C-alpha cells in the first residue's frame, strides 16, 4: 500500500459493522492493543501504545480501571471495530505502506488467539469484557544517567541543562519528570494489576534506576508470578541500584528479556550515548551471561545519519566478539529528530551505506545454516537491515544537513566532543 493511496480515515461516528475478531485482525486497519495493552508515559498519560498520539486518560487524575472503562478508551476501540483506518494510528499504516512490519501487525499476530473472545465480546460502543489490561508499558520517569544524541529531556533527566542552554526549551520546569509522585500514588492507580498482568515492558528514562520498577519486581516475586513476560529497554550501563544487584532478582524469572540500546562500539557508542563507558557495557554483558544465563539478550541499535555507515561494523564486531548471536540485533530507524535521520545524507553517501549493508547481509547469510542461529530470526534481522536501507533511500532530506551540522557543533562545544574525529566517514558533512 503506497502512502499516497492510504484509505480515507472514517469519522468516529462511522457505522460499526459486525465483523469477527478474526476478519478484523486480518484486515488493514484494526489493532488489538486497545483490548490488551496500555502505555504509561513519564507524565502519567495513558495511550494505546508508545507511538499513538492520543491520550486516553491520565493516571494523575484517574485510576487505571477508570481509564480502561472510560469514554475515550471506548471511542478508540469503537474506531478500530469499524474496520476503517483510524486517524491516530496513521504511523502504523505509513510503516506498512513502506513495506515494513508495523507495531499493529506485530500486536495482532501476538494476541490474535488470546484476545479474539474479548474483541468479539465487545459492544459497538467499545466496551470490552476484559476489566484490565494484561500487557503494560510503564515509563515511571525520565531519570537517566545518559544524554544520548537521539534523545531529549522528555526521556532523559540528564538532557535538561543542555536542552535549556541550547534551545531554551525543556519538557518541564525541572530535570526530573515522574509519572507518579510517590509509590502510594502508583499503587493506588494500579490497584490489582499484578493479578492479571501477563506482560510488562520497563523503559524510561533508564528503568534500572527507578525505584518503583523494583517494587513491581518484588510484587511479582511475592505473588509467585515468575513466568510473566518481562521486557527491558535499557541503556545497559547500570546493573546495581540502591544496594540491589538486579541480576539477583532477574535470576528467578523464566521469561525475562533485556534489550540493550547500543548505537556503536567503543568511542562511537560513547559519543552517541554520552555518559556511556564501553568497557562497562562489555563487563555488564559478561556479568549477565554469568549470573543470569536464562535471560534473553538482544541489542537495539538506533540508526541515523551518524552511525548508518558504522552499522555493519557494529553488528559484525558484536558477533565476532561473542557479545551477541547474529540474530540478536534489532534495527531501530531514527525518525526524530529528523536532522539526525539517515534521509539527510547526500545521495552518494547513501549509495555507499546501502552497498555496505548489502555486503554485510551477504556475510550474514553464512550463519543461516549454523547451529544456535534460528533461520527465521536471522531472516528478520536481514529484513530490518534492508528496511533501514530502503527508508534511507526513500526520501531526500539533504536540505536538513545544515541543521545536522549545527547540532553536532553545539553538542561538541558543550560536551567537549569531536564528532568528526570519532566518525571520520561523516567529517566532510560537518565542515
Ligand atoms: S494501530 Fe499502531 S498506533 Fe494505533 S494503537 Fe495500534 S500500534 Fe498503536
Tertiary shape = globular
Query: What's the number of extended β-strand segments?
Result: 13
Termini separation comes to: 40 Å
- Chemical compounds bound to the protein: iron/sulfur cluster
* Residue windows where pLDDT falls under 50 for at least 5 positions: 1-17
Can you summarize the main beta sheet? 9 strands, mixed
C-alpha Rg, in Å? 22 Å
Q: What spatial order of strands do you see in the largest sheet?
A: 3-2-1-4-6-7-10-12-13
Residue-averaged pLDDT: 92
Q: What proportion of the residues is helical, as a percent range?
A: 40-55%
Q: How many H/I helical runs?
A: 20
Kindly name the structural category. alpha/beta
Beta-strand content estimate: 5-15%
Amino acid at each position: 500500500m503506497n502512502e499516497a493511496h492510504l484509505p480515507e480515515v472514517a469519522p468516529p461516528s462511522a457505522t460499526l459493522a459486525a465483523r469477527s475478531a478474526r476478519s478484523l485482525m486480518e484486515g488493514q486497519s484494526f489493532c488489538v492493543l486497545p483490548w490488551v495493552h496500555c502505555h504509561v508515559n513519564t507524565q502519567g498519560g495513558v495511550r494505546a501504545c508508545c507511538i499513538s498520539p492520543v491520550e486516553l486518560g491520565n493516571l494523575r487524575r484517574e485510576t487505571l480501571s477508570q481509564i480502561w472503562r472510560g469514554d475515550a478508551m471506548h471511542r478508540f476501540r469503537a474506531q478500530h471495530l469499524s474496520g476503517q483506518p483510524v486517524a491516530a494510528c496513521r504511523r502504523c499504516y505509513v510503516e506498512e505502506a513502506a513495506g515494513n512490519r508495523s507495531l499493529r501487525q506485530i500486536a495482532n499476530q501476538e494476541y490474535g488467539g488470546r484476545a479474539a473472545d474479548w474483541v468479539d465480546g465487545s459492544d459497538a460502543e467499545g466496551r470490552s469484557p476484559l476489566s484490565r489490561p494484561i500487557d503494560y508499558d510503564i515509563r515511571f520517569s525520565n531519570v537517566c544517567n545518559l544524554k544520548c544524541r537521539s534523545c531529549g529531556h522528555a526521556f532523559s533527566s540528564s538532557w535538561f541543562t543542555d536542552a535549556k542552554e541550547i534551545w531554551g526549551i525543556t519538557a518541564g520546569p525541572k530535570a526530573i519528570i515522574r509519572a507518579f509522585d510517590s509509590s502510594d500514588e502508583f499503587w493506588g492507580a494500579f490497584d490489582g494489576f499484578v493479578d492479571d498482568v501477563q506482560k510488562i515492558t520497563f523503559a524510561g528514562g533508564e528503568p534500572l534506576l527507578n525505584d518503583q520498577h523494583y517494587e513491581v519486581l518484588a510484587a511479582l516475586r511475592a505473588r509467585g508470578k515468575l513466568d510473566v513476560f518481562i521486557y527491558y529497554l535499557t541503556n545497559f550501563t547500570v546493573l546495581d541500584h540502591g544496594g540491589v544487584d538486579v541480576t539477583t532478582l532477574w535470576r528467578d524469572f523464566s521469561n525475562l528479556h533485556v534489550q540493550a540500546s547500543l548505537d556503536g562500539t567503543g568511542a562511537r557508542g560513547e559519543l552517541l550515548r554520552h555518559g556511556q563507558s564501553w568497557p562497562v557495557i562489555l563487563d555488564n554483558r559478561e556479568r549477565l551471561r554469568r549470573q543470569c544465563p536464562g535471560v534473553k539478550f538482544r541489542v537495539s541499535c538506533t540508526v541515523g545519519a551518524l552511525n548508518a555507515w558504522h552499522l555493519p561494523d557494529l553488528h559484525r564486531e558484536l558477533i565476532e566478539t561473542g557479545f551477541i548471536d547474529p540474530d540478536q540485533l534489532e534495527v531501530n530507524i531514527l525518525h526524530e529528530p529528523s536532522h539526525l535521520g539517515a534521509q539527510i545524507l547526500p545521495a552518494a553517501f547513501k549509495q555507499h551505506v546501502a552497498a555496505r549493508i548489502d555486503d554485510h547481509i551477504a556475510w550474514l547469510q553464512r550463519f543461516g545454516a549454523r547451529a544456535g542461529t534460528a533461520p527465521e530470526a536471522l531472516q528478520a534481522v536481514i529484513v530490518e537491515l534492508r528496511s533501514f536501507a530502503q527508508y534511507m533511500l526513500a526520501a531526500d532530506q539533504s536540505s536538513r544537513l545544515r541543521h545536522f551540522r549545527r547540532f553536532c557543533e553545539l553538542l561538541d562545544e558543550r560536551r567537549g566532543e569531536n564528532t568528526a574525529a570519532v566518525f571520520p566517514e561523516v567529517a566532510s558533512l560537518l565542515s
